[in-house]
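USER: If only I could read backbone structure tokens as easily as an amino acid sequence. It would mean a lot if you studied the pair and described how this chain folds. Here is the record:
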Amino acid sequence: MNISNCINLRRLVTFPLCLIISCCVSVSFYLLSVTYCKFPVTPAQTISSLAASVNIIDPNQDIKSNITCIETKKLLDLYSTTVCVHSSADIVSREIVADRIWEEEYVTRLLRILIRNPFLDMIDIGANIGSFTMFTTGALGRFTLAVDCYLPNIERIVRAVQIQKVQNRVVLVHNALYSESGKYLTLSDGPPSGIELKKPTEQNFTSQIIVQTIRFDDLLPILLEKRVQSVIIKIDIEGSENYMCETGSKMFELIDIQLVMMEWGHGFRKRYQKRYQSMIDFFTQRNYVVTDPDCTELDLKNWEILWPGNIYWIKKINFRKNIC
């Protein structure tokens, strides 16, 4: 056989093999880049155009408190993380210590949606001790903006973030959503998981029982700086959820908010009927549909009595396409 023919034959055999390997490497690199290189690391403290009242907490700060941390249960046979807890007097902390998870079904649904949609990031309003935040950022690696009004909750998220080494994938904000920015409100007494906003105070400093207020739109520069385009919101702030809608028109205009997972508390909806009706009007005017967590559509007329304690507001265009 001619030697040149042998060489050509080898080239014919090896070239497709090299092409396949090259394609596989390229695809693998792309998938890694989607998951881990979505935005540049920018110290949150340097974000421009941020309102003075937005109190960003340094995730690298030294936490001197003696804090207990738990390695969570593994969800979907793959994802576990760290959550740092309060004493057993707090119901969320008590259940996490006992079961190593809080609201397992709800968190698992969120993870499934995020896995199907690698372009979606997370906003956690009323983050508590981070039982959602630490799965979205600590286990899944998504950028997460976490907001809570109670400083000891934020401190526990800081410690968990440090253990998971995901400081560059989270921004922690110690504020309360309200109708106005820069006000100071007192917080209710009692276990951390039941804290509510109370009356304004003349004191102009923050503490464990005093928090400064922001509007939801005040957080927009953070998302723009991080190049966040599309998000899921989880919100659970004890009857104050309406402030997200009341002060967030720019946020909903400029950020693609595909899903809002909202607590729809039975007691609060009776106490604050006007607030809850205003939220229904806000979402329906923006072409959202409302469902239960199983994606069954709910009747808008029966929100006071028949709606469950947790609901989904889903952009109509995303309802069957990529959320449900």
In short: Residues 1-43 have pLDDT under 50 and may be disordered. Residues 189 and 248 are 28 Å apart (CA to CA).
